[in-house]
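Worked example 4.2. Below are the chains of a multi-component assembly; read each line carefully before continuing.
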Amino acid sequence: VNVAADKLREQIAEILRVWGMPADYVEQTADVMVETDLRGIDSHGVGMIAKYHEWGHMGGIAFDAPITVETDLPAVAVVDGGHGLGHPVGVFAMKLAIEKAAAGGVGLVVAHNSNHYGPAGYYAMMALERNFLGMSMTSAPGAAMVPTFGKEPKLGTNPIALAAPARRNPPFVLDMATTTVAIGKINIARRLGIPLPEGWATDDHGRPLTDPAEAGRLRHLSPLGGTRELGSHKGYGLGAMVEILCSTLSGGAIACVNQRLGRGDARGHVGHFFMAINPAAFRPAGAFEDDLDDLIDTLRATAPADPDQPVLVAGDPQAEAKEMRLREGIPLADALVEEIRETCRSSNARFMLDG
Amino acid sequence: VNVAADKLREQIAEILRVWGMPADYVEQTADVMVETDLRGIDSHGVGMIAKYHEWGHMGGIAFDAPITVETDLPAVAVVDGGHGLGHPVGVFAMKLAIEKAAAGGVGLVVAHNSNHYGPAGYYAMMALERNFLGMSMTSAPGAAMVPTFGKEPKLGTNPIALAAPARRNPPFVLDMATTTVAIGKINIARRLGIPLPEGWATDDHGRPLTDPAEAGRLRHLSPLGGTRELGSHKGYGLGAMVEILCSTLSGGAIACVNQRLGRGDARGHVGHFFMAINPAAFRPAGAFEDDLDDLIDTLRATAPADPDQPVLVAGDPQAEAKEMRLREGIPLADALVEEIRETCRSSNARFMLDG
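Applying the procedure described above to all two chains together yields the following structure tokens:
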């Protein structure tokens, strides 16, 4: 089923409203989710709605929580998300970081008492409206990444995003998990019945696991690098860096720490990191954008190994997906449509994706 | 040959002095280089001295250049390294970032017109003296990383470093190139005559290269991830992120851009990124250190795949190397001692490592 972006936005908004979200949060959250699906990041858009429903029922998400500023200095702030869904927390905190960057060149805002916020890249990209650079990272309420030399998961997929404005090129938008792949890729291989490459996941003994069904069940993801020989300690180190900047700096909970110390569920206590940088505070206005154009052009001009597969720049596949999906609609798998229908039914929300 | 740290420091200082470095730069640079060798990062300490000599002769390094602040706002600054060696530039810029973090919670300083500055981790660790978090990244004057889908190098090994203070544990210190391995690891395999794993380097056609001699000659390094299947586009994206934050934000040169646009050598025009964060501006004093201790303890407590190889935390191998080398001296290969001797001879510096 292909669904127009506006229709999907209305459907998501309807569900969030009946869950008790105030109107401004509804608008922000629906925009994050639809934009994510438009950009082809299917794992982090409307595909999460059933999970949010489940977590809300478990008491982990306060959909109408007020978002407050705990600490506020000219260049830094700490935001308390009130245990709400992460999307409005992210929009609030990134706006604050952007205001600070407009005033003084940089704004660094961390948030805690939050939840899953969708894709890190959305918040980084908010800075582009002002021709600023944006960064965002987030920790997660559960562990999936197995540290190098270990055999049990400790960190989340802990993504890093950077968006930077160019002039004649689309912006540079990096948005990457610090695991080799996200769990969604393993599920795709499972449905297709094809073995996983060594370096995506490990078994209960910490050995590379190639059986996609078993990997989907265990959810033991390898850090970027895949194996020690190919630098998985770097992916593990980046994942820990994200955890420190998001959770340790903000006072957020860390799932593996909570579990070890018997502190209970980390859901509702997730930490995020946001930074905005105004390049015009560093260099004459426009110089950054011009130089980034030169860099992007030079990267694109790299001689390709295969003439039919040109060298890309971070954000290219997502920009292409958005162009196509704005034109043709957002493809939703039948199983996902049924999930949304069921979520509507049990939430007493109107189902709007028929026909 | 094992050399005591103080003796190596005197030898390096002697050479830098005869190259025309002022006394304060000499002290700072020798400290960075010796600390690097103590921490076992042999590729970035005194092992670079012959290269600095060569680049100095080529006119790429102004050893006595004044370091100036171009732009100075409360939370951000731009430093002009005057085309000098990167070490004093890095120390100067990171000190400025730390002062800004002490005053307002965060300091973000970029530098341009600089050169190779040794290991990114040294500058990040400077923040630890104040119980701050430190970050540093640097671009490079030459290209070594081949972008995903490409067959020619475009970016440097572009490292990322984060240091964060704990209380009862040693600090967390991540310091990693965004390539799978540094060129030094390929040279080690070449000397041993053992094939490289697929994912370290590529050949002239962009295909994985396992011949260590050929890989050492070509210097076509793969981004972290190694292959597209294992996420090399993420390592490539991180390398580009480092380039943007170091060079595009500071007005530094980018080797591949200069080459494409006929702008000449990037040496002397390298850009760096420095950030310091005072956690006490975000949370009650000491809370960050306590929570980082809990995270470090939890990561170390990960059930190991092999009981004889416990799970480590970033910085552990380097801290262990330092302890041993402070006790037993810094091991220098014969070939390196001869390089230092030759550098002394041709610089009219006293050679001090005999006996």
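Take a moment to check your reading of the output against the notes. Chain B touches chain A through 88 residues (CB under 8 Å). The radius of gyration of chain B is 20 Å.
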